[in-house]
Known about the structure:
The structure holds two protein chains of two kinds. Helices cover 26% and strands 27% of the residues of chain A. By secondary structure, chain A is of the alpha+beta class. The longest helix of chain A has 16 residues, at 27-42. Chain B is α+β, with helices and mostly antiparallel strands. In chain B, helix 1 runs parallel beside helix 5. The longest helix of chain B has 25 residues, at 302-326. Chain B is globular and about 65 Å long.
Amino acid sequence: MSEQKSLDIKALGDxxxxxxxxEGIHPSVHQQVKNLSFLLDEYxxxxxxxxxxxxxxxxxxxxxxxxxxxxxxxQIDGTPLxxxxxxxxxxxxxxxxxxxxxxxxxxxxxxxxxxxxxxxxIVAETHTMSIEEVIExxxxxxxxxxxxxxxxxxxxxxxxxxxxxxxxKLTPRTSIPPGSVGIAGKQTGVYPLETPGGWQIIGRTPxxxxxxxxxxxxxxxxxxxxTFYPITQEEYDEQKKVTTCQ
Amino acid sequence: xxxxxxxxxxxxTIQDIGRTGSQKFGVLVSGAMDSYSxxxxxxxxxxxxxxxxxxxxxxxxxxxxxxDTLIAxxxxxxxxxxxxxxxxNWRPLIVKKGSILKFGFAIEGCRAYLAIAGGIDIxxxxxxxxxYLVAGIGGFKGRALQQNDHLSFGQLTETNDKVFTxxxxxxxxxxxxxxxxxxSVASTQTIRIIEGTEYQHFDDASKQRLxxxxxxxxxxxxxxxxxxxxxALSLTEKLELLSEGVTFGTIQIPPNGKPIILMADRQxxxxxxxxxxxxxxxxxxxxxxxxxxxxxxxxxxHAEAERELIAKEELIHQIKIGIQQKLQ
Lengths: 246, 328
């Protein structure tokens, strides 16, 4: 194995660090984020609180007081930051030994158009294609969940076909119902909770993306892959009934 | 054991040490803005440090107690009275059955913390009792308190019971926790910061302005963030950042150049350049800054910030031991 480079680590305040694992939005960069996040969950250090994976970075939150007090698990003596950086660099040596893993595949049913997808027509008109073509293009790719953020359970997805990329609405809606599937520029996503927003709403899923009582509370996690598939109103109503009863 | 909300005040929520562990699912940390005051309030009534308390903002909250109840009030001085008689903060006291606890207007600081012996009997959601306002999760029914709300308290533990018996016998103690040693409620604050992850991308003039010029906390500030007015800060060149994790006290600079300090209800990620980071030891004091108050920033090193944090944790530990000795 070649000599391991040190990680690109910066202090994010006195109780967290920011680790950059590459540039830009690429599945290969994100694989590194996923691997390091996996290793840290498997081998947490004394005082570790949590980590937040993003497109090309992993934020690691910890208690400097517990790191300071810890008498084991760290191979150097030093400030809490020095101990954590040393720990992360040693942990990262194992990253290259991890196999490239494909994230879990989650299939999300969507009722496209109509009352639940009021902007589907606009998207179709913008690209001079039929509604059926938009649905076909939206349901074809496998999307990668780069991170969850903005709202609980809200996935930042990569992989939208640029043929249906559509700018946001000029005036955001004051309320978008939960489950709404939308397009904003080159992004597509699903709203887990009712929020205001400017995305072009093309459909709605009966699947619940965020349930506080569930463990984990979010259906999706960073690193998952998702596909959308079209359903009818009857199928939507049927699935909605099932989720509501659970 | 319970309390009735006669007036909810400006913003009263239940908060504890925060909801950590679920940020990767987009779940905010929330929790008390001034967690030092919150922790001490709990210690004063014999609770666990991390128990949920009432966070009362600026003015107006009125509560009526249905039983004799052991409480402690910490944080900012909101001119609190019980049945019209001023009460002293930072010490355990008993509110009698039927009595009315009223928070007046903040003369010092911005937020008061009211701990109840036995804690507040609400569900723990994702490991925390904190109110997550935007998502309507946690706290009391996922929202800020409203008039006529009725909140029940938890069972007294043996420790709660001991403190209760002692205060009931001896009355309100003549000692108080010397809070000036760990939070400042001064009207003009100097807040210590360290370099943020994009500090080097700001121009020299901006780096100078940040530590020389005063910044005013605008009324648009809230539990999510403090929006500051003052000299604009700028990058040497445009920087395209992808969304990434942020934290309590992150000072980010949006395109208009006016700093925003991320607070307890911050989102889990952000994409603005981060010029600085308020040190953890000063987050309590920062949370006590009123709208329209002036702030100055002082830049220190990361190692100094860590030493301040450790010193403050040790101070809280000493306070804990001190309280335990007083309440023997």
